[in-house]
Design brief:
This protein has about 450 residues and is mostly beta strands. It is built from three helices and 28 strands.
Length: about 450
């Protein structure tokens, strides 16, 4: 941008047609450039201007150490725009902003691309001085849009998206975002006349998590800020199935208790076909299936196995498994049925409490029926062992008391029995009557007769 000094006449300064329309916004953006003198020892100064198409550009020709010399402004075709405060050029878009001995300031409204170029400031000194300022016009992109190859995609499918920014100056830069994540596209630039059309292509493999997520096309251009457009992805995907255990709440399934399962499925489109089945076996007859729910009112060991919920839509079919393992029912130890007055130092601790298996849940089911029965037995014994130890001493004391009480009862019964049955015994009342011929004679011959009746004695055997 070297300046030059040359004599200049006034010929041709007032003629000619109006130059093309220049946007003013672009001039305002570059108006902040530093003042650059165009030659050593010259008194004229000016600055370059960058403006957005359609905005206002302001050109300033200033003089340092003014000596009242005449200032004039010329367009790129070297036609005089202003001579002092007079406008020879018949273009109403040029307006005088300020005129003095030290400055000539002119505004250009509705700036267009055709207004780009060098504008000359001349000072009639001896020798004459001349410098130039450059107007640059920026054109923001038009018709920014995203084109998607398929409006509705299926998960796992690769789709093509194209973002086009038309008629910009200079060429724009395009950036892609999916949500908050930036993606890289492939860019092509096409120049048409003084304008540039930019197209960016993005290849994207979509999943179910992309459904409803915006894809954003963002423009980087000095003429605009935050210019963007977006499209929302629509992704179809097969159902996602889950099995929830409603009862029992603790998760431990015992023999004789009920089991209730619920199947949930989420997909796009929403699944309409849902069914329950038992893997590698027939569904037990006592199992009740109602829509998405499965109910077993009375569990038993034959119910062990894997239960599967299947759901499907137009995209595909999915399933979720529930592995059922039925534990033994709770066991109880009844209290002693006899009472005793004998006290023992052992304290009986809640002999009616229900014993629980040591394991209240499971992370892996047995692989066979034999393994299932063995594991169930082990769990039950492990739970019962602690309770039995707690009541061993109480049971032993109770048994001893019962034995002592039974022995006392037996002795009392025997004593009463012998008291009532004395057995056979002999007296001396009929002594000497063994040889009597009849009863009368025996009585008469009895030793002592009636006279000795007071001396009779009885011997208890």
């Amino acid at each position: 941008m070297a300046s030059r000094t040359e004599p200049s006449g006034c010929s041709g300064r007032g003629g000619g047609g109006a130059p093309g329309v220049l946007p003013l916004p672009l001039l305002l953006l570059l108006a902040a450039a530093a003042l650059v003198p165009r030659g050593d020892g010259q008194n004229l100064v000016t600055e370059d201007v960058t403006v957005v198409e359609g905005d206002v550009a302001t050109i300033s020709c200033r003089v340092k150490n003014s000596d009242d010399s005449v200032i004039q402004l010329l367009n790129p075709n070297r036609q005089t725009i202003y001579f002092r405060d007079f406008r020879p050029l018949k273009d109403s878009r040029f307006q005088l902003v300020n005129f003095s001995n030290s400055e000539l300031r002119v505004s250009l409204t509705n700036v267009s691309v055709s207004d780009e170029g060098r504008y000359f400031c001349q000072l009639y000194t001896d020798p004459p001085q001349e410098i130039y300022t450059t107007i640059t016009v920026l054109v923001p992109p038009r018709n920014l849009m995203i084109d998607i190859q398929k409006e509705t995609a299926v998960e796992g499918e690769e789709i093509e998206l194209n973002c086009t920014a038309m008629a910009s100056r200079p060429a724009t830069a395009i950036r892609w975002f999916k949500g908050n994540k930036e993606l890289i596209g492939k860019t092509e630039v096409e120049k048409w006349s003084d304008m540039f059309t930019v197209t960016s292509q993005l290849m994207l493999t979509v999943g179910r998590e992309d459904d409803g997520v915006p894809v954003i096309c963002l423009v980087d251009h000095p003429a605009v800020k935050d210019l963007q457009t977006q499209r929302y992805l629509e992704v179809m995907y097969k159902p996602q199935v889950r099995v929830l255990q409603n009862y029992p709440l603790q998760g431990l399934t015992r023999e004789g208790e009920p089991l209730e399962l619920t199947c949930t499925a989420l997909g796009k489109p929403q699944p309409t076909d849902m069914k329950w089945l038992r893997v590698d076996d027939e569904m037990p007859q006592h199992v009740v299936v109602s829509g998405s729910n499965l109910l077993i009112s009375n569990l038993n060991k034959t119910d062990n196995g894997t239960y599967r919920c299947e759901a499907s839509n137009s995209v595909g079919k999915s399933y979720a498994d529930y592995m059922l393992f039925v534990y033994d029912p709770p066991t109880t130890i009844p209290p002693p049925t006899t009472t005793t007055t004998t006290t023992t130092p052992t304290t009986i601790t809640d002999t009616t409490a229900t014993t629980e298996p040591a394991v209240h849940g499971f992370t892996q089911l047995p692989n066979s029926a034999e393994e299932l029965d063995y594991g169930d037995l082990t769990d039950s014994r492990a739970g019962d062992e602690g309770s039995i130890r707690a009541v061993d001493h109480a049971v032993i004391g109770g048994v001893v008391a019962v034995v002592v009480f039974a022995m006392l009862c037996l002795l009392i019964i025997l004593g009463r029995y012998f008291a009532r049955h004395k057995g056979t015994y002999f007296t001396h009342e009929a002594k000497g009557a063994d040889d009597a011929a009849d009863a009368d004679t025996a009585i008469i011959n009895a030793e002592g007769g009636q006279n000795n009746s007071e001396e009779k004695k009885e011997y208890f055997i």
